[in-house]
Amino acid sequence: MEWREVVEHPSLQDLPFKIETNEWGQIVMTPASGKHGRYQGRIIRWFNRLGEGEVFPECPTQTSKGIRVADVAWASAAFIKKYGAPLCFPESPEIVMEVLSPSNSATEMEEKRRLYFEAGAKEVWLCDDDGNMRFFNPQGELAGSELFGEFPKRLEIDPA
User: Fold this and answer.
1) Which one in 42, 80, 83, 101 has a CA-CA gap of 20 to 30 Å to 52?
2) For the chain, which domains are there?
């Protein structure tokens, strides 16, 4: 399916899954949890305090193997000026973040990182199920973000 067809298809509205496509145009769905969404919220809240660039959830990006949808993305003002609000971004914002689900494998996440970097990402961040953050640039893993070094290495959420 083309991305426009996926976005507009009535039976795919309001699903509790993140939808992406693979290189053959097939739909791939990943279930999300409340914990997953809370980590997304923490990341977004942190970036909103900065007041620079734009942060948003569920960022669809065209890659060489279909549409990948980052859980959270940060884009500079220049990126937003260039692309606005398309149905799908033709290249990756500067930072894409994935909140890992139990179903995510290490191989899958390596592939996503590679695809995001090919599409122009400067950094890819991963948040595990315990809130631990990992930061990557195209050369490999970093001790912390080179673009936002003050971002915490661990996110806390109240379990209650």
Assistant:
1) 101
2) 31-142 (3.90.1570.10)
CB 54 within 8 A of CB 107: no
* DSSP states along 107-126: HHHHHHHHHHHHTT-SEEEE
**∠ Cα 33 26 107 (to 5°):** 60
Maximum CA extent, the chain? 44
State pTM to two decimals: 0.82
pLDDT digits (tens, 9 = 90+) for 23-78: 777 766 665 666 768 898 999 999 888 878 999 998 999 999 999 999 999 999 99
CB atoms within 10 A of CB 42: 18
